[in-house]
Automatic annotation (TrEMBL):
PANTHER family: CATALASE (PTHR11465), CATALASE T (PTHR11465:SF62)
GO BP term (any one): hydrogen peroxide catabolic process
A cellular component term, taken from the record's GO annotations: peroxisome
Protein name per the record: Catalase
EC number of the protein: 1.11.1.6
Described function: Catalyzes the degradation of hydrogen peroxide (H(2)O(2)) generated by peroxisomal oxidases to water and oxygen, thereby protecting cells from the toxic effects of hydrogen peroxide.
One Pfam entry name: Catalase
InterPro entries, A to Z: Catalase, Catalase_AS, Catalase_core, Catalase_haem_BS, Catalase_immune_responsive, Catalase_sf
Family the entry assigns: Belongs to the catalase family.
Amino acid sequence: MFLIGGDGDVIMHESLRGPRSGINEFIYIRLSLLLSFFLTPKPLFPLHQPPFPPSLYNQFTSNTTMATQTAGHGQANGKEFAGKFRTYEDDRNTPSQDTLYCTSNGVPMPHPYETQRAGVNGPLLLQDFHLIDLISHFDRERIPERVVHAKGSGAHGTFKCTKPLDDLCIADVFAKAGNECPVTVRFSTVGGESGSHDCARDPRGFSVKFRTEEGNWDMVANNTPVFFLRDPAKFPHFIHTQKRDPATHLSGSDDSTMFWDYLSQNPESIHQVMILMGDRGIPDGYRFMHGYGGHTLKLVNKAGDWVYAQMHMKSKQGTKFITQEESANYSPDHSQKDLFTAIEKGDCPSWSVEFQTMTAKEAEQLWEEQKINVFDLTHIWPHKQFPLREVGEFTLNENAKNYFAEIEQVAFNPAHMPPGIEPSADPVLQSRLFSYPDAHRHRVGVNYQQLPVNSSRTSHRVANFQRDGNMAFYNQGSRPNYLSSIEPISFRERSVDLDKVHGQFISSAVTFLSEIKPEDFNAPRALWEKVFDDKAKARFVSNVSGHMSTCRYPEIIKRQIAIFRHVSDDLATRLEKATGIKGYEGIANMRFNGTHNGMASDPKLRHANGMSGKVSSSAHDHNGAPIKGTHKADSIDHAGTNGTRVNGAATNGANGH
């Protein structure tokens, strides 16, 4: 029997070696030379053709030069690592052939299936740490799945700035052409569980972690430019309607009652419903869909001036969709398989990164003249007025080595913004700034940002005064955990005047709930009348009526058809014919439990939930939009020229779709 030694030599097992003299010595040397040729570990890939990016390949080759096991000693990967901590990259890139089977505390074991028993036919022994270690860890392998976006896929790649945005934003990643940073992207469905079908009719999550030189920037986006709601307190309620019924435990596929009940009581959802039930409702995999930030951000330049901005990520592969009928023929993991396989064979997908921008003055005018609210997640910015400006692109060229470590544990937080990018007063965005990191601390742990996939990659050594907590790994050594004068920490001067960027809010505290208004139907109407062709309209009606067929209460369908009637009477008539249910003539005589009705014919029907509004009303005429005078004079007068709007065009359909 022969084993490979720590330095690559072939070693004869002691029990077979015997005295080395004469012919025995000759045979030993010859066999050693022969076996060393065949058994010495070779690189898994030719040196001239690395299977992944050079940075990872260099790390891989440096790690895999380590030899395999030393007989009888249990020293994996060479003596030079004895007494040292191994790195995440070492673990990620080491093949199984270079490892030794051990318990979790590093003790080598002869076989993973063996157990200790009280005699051959007796019960198990509690002292069998190997078995207890194995089973107890298995019992804890799962962390809570995401409440939303549980079914997902992802990959790694690189962002490259192609057209600087330095006139509008001081963020280093946009400072000059050629600037690059690594990215991790996670795509997902929204409502389904982790094991659900990824070709379900559902919005898609589209989150990107840009690891910039100034810290991580997380763009937590969707594949639709709008969402179902604009009041943040509605979010848990809406998501509950996307889950299983608490009594029957049926999903929306078998019982759509909760889904349509919510929509029929919150008519501002109509814009997203038009997109969801249209062709974009089931994209043909993640490579063939766009991404939209949805929320309004602020970009700040070196002069301290700022503009409002919306971010778009345009698929360079184009867009494709799957019809409702076709979706039944696809694998539940079609999107995952398509993304992984494409990258594996070198067909790496990419997206351009583009911005729409407007000044504070333009935002006020947009509401006053067109009733478009930049703080409203159900509204879009017209592309003809606010064309897209390309700033860069990212390409996904590396699949995860370990899905759980790199995709399931990746955590995106819209509050992660480098200098030069700031949040707006969009109330749903403001709520998400808290909700996302709060969910991560619950689901992954308080130190979730210490996980390699979530940590930043900056040239400066990151330090703060956060310590301890569950699974603290990088606990900042013996450095003081307070602002110390004995061992002082370094600081960098502020680069953004936050007082100027966010200082326009001077107001009394108010209660607020949005109300449905005629302008909320303008963009949905443009979709039906100017974007959908005849075949798309027919598919839309089929999709809606088919989904409504499992709704148990006709009253809900009557209300929803009334909402569709404000989009188009033609659409409502088609749905009545398809469902066999006559809808109401409109919403003027309806009260909603979730939304104030700004179109009610009777003032008694205006307030949501039947409240009278006598003491105070949470309805406000401008629906939370930035009306004239909202911004301070310096925000209006010193906002610059809004950059160079020269490389955008209104090519995405009517009214910005």
